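Translate sequence into structure tokens.
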Amino acid sequence: MWYGMRLQSLREQSGLTRAEVSSRTGISRSTLAKIEAGVNIPTIEQFIRLANSLRLRLPKLLMDVGVIRIRDMAVTLKEAPSQNTAHLPRKNGFERAHSSRARLARRIF
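Result follows.
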């Protein structure tokens, strides 16, 4: 599988051996070899551990190995939730107190 070869390439670019990645992640060397060969499919937990050991963010690792595409992660402006929270019901007095403090701070400064 493509992701296995890409994981191996990323590991080698980082200058790490399977033994070093194994000790950092807690994933056995044999499991790492099977993942890199495309025999095993890593779990999300294993992807998280691999991303941490390679010092990459998880979305970056998943994009680099071809699990997800950038368009799968992109949110268009039409899909983005509104930032206006005025339409939301107030659950307690915190929001009201917080907004009055913010108005007071604006008047002071």
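Note: Helices lie at 2-13, 18-25, 29-37, 44-53, 58-64, 70-73, 93-108.
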